[in-house]
C-alpha cells in the first residue's frame, strides 16, 4: 500500500500572475464541476450514444479570503472593473508518494467572477471573510 503525504500549507493559487495567500485558516477552496463530463442518449434495442461534452471541463472555484486583504482588494477591483476581467491561472498542491515528490496542478483558463461576493460578518473571533466564485471555461488536472 502506498504512503501518501500532503503538506497542508503546500497549496498555491495564482490568478493573472497574482499569488493568493490570505485564505481563512482551516478553510478550503472548492473547485466544482458545473456540467457532466459525458452525456448518454439511450436508444431502442439496447443502443446507446455516448458523447464527451464540450462544456465538461467547466468548473466553479469558490474561495474565501480575509476581508480587506490584498486578495480581497484585487478581486473587488476585478469585479468592479469597467470591462470584464478574464482570469487565467493555476492551482497547485505538493505531495509525496512513497518518498517521491510530486505536484498536482490544475490549469485554469477563461475565468470570470460570476457572482457578487458573499460577505460574512463575525462578532466572536473577528475572522471576517469574503467569498468569491470564479467560473473557468476549462480546468484541466495534471499529475
Task: Write structural notes for this entry.
The protein is mainly β and 143 residues long. Strands 1, 2, 3, 4, 7, 8, 9, 10 and 11 form a nine-stranded antiparallel β-sheet that branches. The chain has a two-stranded antiparallel sheet with strand order 5-6. The model has no long low-confidence stretch (mean pLDDT 88). Helices cover 7% and strands 52% of the residues. The protein has a single domain (10-34, 56-142), classed as Roll (Pnp Oxidase, Chain A), CATH 2.30.110. The chain has one helix and eleven strands. A hairpin with a 2-residue loop joins strand 8 and strand 9 (100-113).
Summarize the structure.
With about 140 residues, the chain is mainly beta. It has one helix and eleven strands, in the order βββββββαββββ. It has one domain: Roll (Pnp Oxidase, Chain A).
Order of helices and strands: EEEEEEEHEEEE
Note the beta-strand portion: over 45%
Number of domains: 1
Mean pLDDT reading: 88
CATH superfamily: Hcp1-like
User: Which descriptor suits the 3D outline?
Assistant: globular
Q: Please state the second-level CATH architecture.
A: Roll
Largest sheet: 9 strands, antiparallel
User: Uncertain segments of ≥5 residues (pLDDT<50)?
Assistant: none
> Oligomeric state of the chains?
single chain
- Helix-residue proportion: under 10%
CATH class reads Mainly Beta
Reported by name, the CATH topology is Pnp Oxidase, Chain A
Number of helices: 1
Structural class, judged by helices and strands? mainly beta
